């Protein structure tokens, strides 16, 4: 059975650190905490779980801090987590089984990273991250902000999930780092341009965000998933700026990089529905719910589950096919059983169907 070092970087995480470590400590062989300047009880909490606690002088570089934590590891493999991440009980069991069965030839294990779920437990957004890596390979983190772990070799795509459960977030931290780098005249990589644009987007600085997304895409050197995401964010920028023609063009632009993804299908469905072109809207919503054969590292199941089915309910109602509309509302209700929009739609359709039966 392999041994595992858990490596974390932390700062002022007293609210969540114990929750994180409680969720995983039983299945790791050592815990390494790299503190980047806590002023609360973070280090006191960490001492309940480990004596391997180190200080790292913060230099606005997340990769440097993570690499410093990795350098302290001693076990066969390194697992990384953030303080507001957890392994749910069923996922911890899967991780325990993985430890017992993992072939030592595996260099990296990727896991799902669940970033958000709705009140019914439906996953709203998830990504796949290289989460467990062989220590002997000396894999390195790259990037001062939105860092990534550069891996190679034999990668196992597991079905294990880590769940992100943030209680608070320093919303300006990353943007400030990018602004400092810009002021110093640093040259940005394509990845930097993309994530800088995302920070500007999150701060509603839409014209600046558009400029950086365009720089990123025009360079034609980005990862395909970031290209597709940029098209989505550009569409959002133009939508908030009420430039609907450019929004549409951004949606269509995504087709340069991949077959139509459910999100863009739903966007097109909405566009045509607003134009009262119900047949075209129906086509795109039906495309959204079809099974996607392409495996992607980013996923928002909302656009392939309840949302397009609810919209198909609207489409079929408009053309008078109330039975089919009701069937789609039933599918939507399977995902969101108490959603008042879906329940109201069903109540309305039942009244029409009952009236037709009595005639």
From TrEMBL:
InterPro entries in the cross-refs: Glyco_trans_2-like, Nucleotide-diphossugar_trans, TPR-like_helical_dom_sf
Name listed for the protein in its UniProt record: SPBc2 prophage-derived glycosyltransferase SunS
Enzyme Commission numbers on file: 2.4.1.-
A Pfam family hit: Glycos_transf_2
Species, as recorded: Ruminiclostridium hungatei (Clostridium hungatei)
Keyword Metal-binding belongs to the record: no
Annotated keywords: Glycosyltransferase, Transferase
Gene Ontology MF terms: glycosyltransferase activity
All residue ranges annotated as the Glycosyltransferase 2-like domain in the record: 5-113
